[in-house]
Design goal:
13 helices, 2 domains, 6-stranded mixed beta barrel, alpha+beta, two-stranded antiparallel sheet
Length: 395
Amino acid sequence: MTILGIVIGITAIIIVMAVGQSAQKLILDQIQGLGSKTIAIVPGKQPEGPSDAANVFLDSLKERDVESLNNKGNVPYADSVMPVVFGTARTGYEEETYQATVLGLGSATEDNIISKVFSIETDKGDMFSADDVRSRTSVVVIGSKVKEKLFGLSDAVGEKVKINGRNFRVVGTLPSKGQVSFFNFDEMVLAPYTTVQQYILGRKYFDRVIVVAGNEASIERTVNDIEIVLRNNHGITDPDKDDFFVETQADLLDRVSSVTTILTILLAAIAAVSLLVGGVGIMNIMFVSVTERTKEIGLRKAVGATNADIMKQFLFEAVWLTLIGGVVGVILGSGLAATATWAIAVFYNIDFSFSFPWTAAVMGIGVAAGVGLIFGIYPARQAARKSPIEALRYE
């Protein structure tokens, strides 16, 4: 019971830090999965705080912008440009239905950008073609989970599914891949972006425009060219009034890493409050111990123990108790965190691996020892100051 507060505090810190590190690694891996040369153009003003929530232009990226970006004279270092639209729609086949995420992309045959950015290819059938994109053909490629739900073990290629009351021919299926970047392609329906705009989502703007630079050295120049082209198209002369923002993978990595680190530290700091409670508990228990062992203190002083000896004895006991609590907390927290990450990985079918927080473990044990030292000083001083004669008489 004496060390329970310390155990709970260290356990909570280890769980928060371990799960936080695992989540940060997962997010950063997903971002890196897009490739280091990938540049994302996002509609709206880049948010810098809660006040920017209403200051958005979600329909600011149009077909004219994509045409301008595809012009080599405007963006000479761009290797590929692909507009992206996405949303959800109920997909049906005969009596079966599935609420799928619909992702509208460009053609895989044009610079193979889908393979470059998302690293996806069909296991049966083919991806839609450039002609399908231009003609707004009603064709789709479905993920493994969508295929399993709608068709079971039957072959889906060549069959027709119904989305928003319209028939779409399945031209290909994807192998089970799980999470790729921010998308779970197992649960997706892929189609030409023109088809998705026209027949599924009913919109004329894009949710993203993805640009792949020719090489990493040209990323900064490409970003500058993109900003100039879009500002000219949108009649913007003041960069502070941009209705879009451009993100490179390096920018996104830095931003996400900073945010997740701050959140993890904040949660760990909140969990550390229990260490304060544990420290107070240690101090109270040490006061009780001093009272109960008054005769022992008097006897030790009578045979030559100094005030410093008595103080060291009680300080050592306090630090030893908290150290034990720290070690138990690290072991218990690691076990619970490993179990939690395993459960999340299995339940959500994502690569959520356990990451042991060595720094947090070392700091946790050190802090636990420090708590024992700080909260043990006063009881130890009280024990050291007891008179040996009065202590021997104590009943």
